[in-house]
Amino acid sequence: MRKITFVLVCLLSSAVYDNVLAQRTSHVNFDTITMARLTAGEPLRDLAVKVVVPIDTLLWGGEDGASLFKFNGKYFGQPGEFRLATQGTLIHQITFSVQSRDSNDAARLFENLDALLEKKYGHPNEGYTNVFRMIRWKGKRQVLALQTKEGTNYVSVILTELEQRKSTRE
After folding, report:
1. Total-model pTM
2. Among residues 52, 73, 96, 148, which one has the fewest Cβ atoms lying within 10 Å of its Cβ?
C-alpha cells in the first residue's frame, strides 16, 4: 500500500510539474515577436528601414539618450498609434494604443485583442481584471502586456525589453 501511494503521489506531482512546465514552455519563441516589424532591444537604426510611414519625434535625446517616437499603423488589423521608447541607440519599449468611441467599445476591443493574442502566443502568464485590466505574456527577454482601465476609451498593447542590453552609445 505504501508503495502504491508513493507512486501515485510521484505521478500526481509529476503531472502538476509537467503542466507548469508546459505553460512556461508555451512561450519558447516569445522573445522573437515583433510589433510594426520591430522588436524590443533592436537597434534604433532599423526604424528607418522597417517603418515606411512618417515618424514624429516626441522627445529627442537627453542626458541618458532617452527618446520617444510615434507613427500610425495597424496591429491585428486595428488602426492606432505606435510609440517607441529608446534608451541610447536601442528600442526599449513599443506601445500600440487605440482610442475607441466609448468605454464599451474599448472593453470589446480588449476582449478581441486578448483572444487574438492568446491564439497567437498561448495562455498568458498573468491576468488582472478589476478597475485596471491587464494581461501579460512573459518571455526571458520580453514582456507583452495588454491593458486598459474601466471607463476609459483607450486600449494599449506594450512590448517591453526586460533585460537592458548595452547600448552602442556607451
Report:
1. 0.77
2. 52
State pLDDT tens for residues 60-87. Answer: 887 678 899 999 999 999 999 999 999 8
Please give the single-letter amino acid code of residue 83: R
Residues linked to residue 160 through DSSP beta bridges, in sequence order: 93, 143
- Domain locations along the chain: 30-161
- Distance between CA 113 and CA 106 in Å, rounded? 10
Cα–Cα dist 73/5, whole Å? 58
- SS3 per residue for the chain: CHHHHHHHHHHHHHHHHHHHHHHHHCCCCHHHCCECCECCCCEHHHHHHHCCCCCEEEECCCCCCEEEEEEEEEECCEEEEEEEEEECCEEEEEEEEEECCCHHHHHHHHHHHHHHHHHHHCCCCEEEECCEEEEEEECCCEEEEEEEECCCCEEEEEEEECCCCCCCCC
